[in-house]
Amino acid sequence: MTPLFRSRRRATPEHAENPRYTAYPTASEHDALTSDAASGAAPTFEGRPLDRPHEDVEDQGLAFDLTTAISRRRALGVFGIGAGALALAACAPTSSSSTSAADFTEEMPGETAGPYPGDGSNGQDVLEISGVERSDIRSSIDGGTTADGVKMILTMNIVDMVNSNGPMTGAAVYIWHCDAVGEYSMYSTGLENETYLRGVQVVGDDGTVTFTTIFPGCYAGRWPHIHFEVFPDIDSITDATHAVLTSQIALPEEASTAVYADSRYTGSAQNLSGVTLETDNVFSDGWELQVPEISGSVSSGYTVRIDVPIDTSTESEVGGMPGGGGAQGAPGGAPPST
Known about the structure:
By secondary structure, this protein is an alpha+beta fold.
């Protein structure tokens, strides 16, 4: 918060270590001093004679300072401006403290959907099930099995680069990821009828969607990640070819290491030690735009946020390993043949 009483420093370096605090006046206000030496008139400030004509305005004493403060307070009152309003204005965030639209100049890279998308492109299609549009995706849609693990709240800011980097309001975002032991609902053995850790949210006026889920585990051959697809609207999700972006989020190493010390994440710590972002078959070509901001802890859960700039004027590209072989070694076994 910007202080109401600002530190007044001389322009010369030798005074830089000794700031003086004063309500009035600031250094620029010395221009308001008037003196007519030829006529012998006493110097004045804002029309009032100085109590100590041979000293600076800031050295006129407490009585002079109080009179100046009161007169200015009355002037502010004429315009309906009080000290409280000034304080609020001082605390208000500036454009430099938030991400501006001009900051988004590069689209989020496209990546493979992998062999376990559940969007109808490789077997089952969860996007045709009533109830897939939901915020908390920890349980199967029918209320069955709930995935256990460290809680994570994921917020994605979906940016429409074509529309002056504004919010892509109305777009639909589908996310999915593995559970704590690296298995995928709908595909892994014994989980064919489960739909947990999959869900859709529609982008609001602020450009974001938020999911409550768990921190995914790490299986052999892959860096910890979250898959997602963005569709133009909710009606488009029934056809995977309508997606304007298919990509993946790379979870930070520090948080992953902390989470994988939890006993529920069997094998994840060992799997993480065998892969790096440089050797991962999806992120090895660059991951800077795909690593989110993260805060929290294993005990309290993690809050994750990422910007997803999308250029809808260009054809969606898919990166990563051709054929979607990103799940090599996953506990769920080989992907379906369809």
